């Protein structure tokens, strides 16, 4: 049929009000079963599709979630996106993915898009340089919930889903300490990120509390910097490390490139341990790398659960965590 089928058309054909037709399609208990059946049969026959813009106007928001992410090629973000999309679909929501490239200006444009289109909720992984959270807070004031994930703000009055970062770093440190190593090179991400601060603090604490802790040498790397040359320089020094700790899969990749270029053997020449968001990278190498798992998919499921709580009720701010555990390889 060429004409657009509307609720008004259906109500006219059945000689009922538009309100009755609408409630019948939504299985409202005040509408008689016979009326519901007639409305649904006619809507199906005429191939009626609800107008999403009309729904948005009547409910003050759409059925669209937005996920703002630094990049989509990273396996962690891919698995997180998969989980959020899978879970969103179960509740009748559509997911839009927007990429920031770790640019605060692009991030700000995403937030303005969300506000303009009155989306149902925003999942946000902040950039390393995000410092002004007023735009995020303006969404909350407009009844658009925000759930921060992975890289989250330091303040408490917001919704966060995170890995148990301190636990993950502690597990990694304790695994090293059990091996009686002498010198550890630990590579962490940007020091401004809360995830880095938590992991670094816990890692150092585990070492400081151990009576026979090995020497600990700490370096930081930013998102755009490959720490391979730093690692090579350390491995070629007279006082070279016997163990390398990598805070992320990306840092692990750099470490493995350095080790390969120097023709070193794992774990005989140098041991390696990492914190990994999935099992792909640690199992990519021979021998397999010992790692502390922090699952991106599990975090995505948790994020969607937190979002649905925000959508359904005026809930207090939450900070939720995914547990971590050690997966033994042959690299330590």
Can you put this structure into words, describing what you see?
With 332 residues, the protein is α/β, with parallel strands linked by helices. It folds into 3 domains: 7-50, no CATH class; 61-163 and 297-324, Response regulator (Rossmann fold, 3-Layer(aba) Sandwich); 165-293, Response regulator (Rossmann fold), CATH 3.40.50.2300. It is 42% helix and 17% strand. It contains 12 helices and 12 strands. The strands form 2 sheets. It has a 6-stranded parallel sheet, sandwiched between helices. It has a 6-stranded mixed sheet with strand order 7-6-8-9-10-12. Strand 6, helix 9 (194-208) and strand 7 (215-220) form a beta-alpha-beta unit. The longest helix is centred in the last third of the chain and has 17 residues, at 296-312.
Summarize the helices and strands and which ones pair or pack:
Layout: H1 7-14, H2 18-25, H3 33-45, H4 52-59, E1 64-69, H5 75-90, E2 94-99, H6 104-116, E3 121-124, H7 134-141, E4 146-149, E5 159-163, H8 165-177, E6 183-188, H9 194-208, E7 215-220, H10 228-235, E8 243-246, H11 249-261, E9 271-276, E10 290-293, H12 296-312, E11 319-322, E12 325-327
Parallel strand pairs: 1-2, 1-3, 3-4, 4-5, 5-11, 6-7, 6-8, 8-9, 9-10
Antiparallel strand pairs: 10-12
Helix pairs in contact: 1-2, 2-3, 5-12, 6-7, 8-9, 10-11
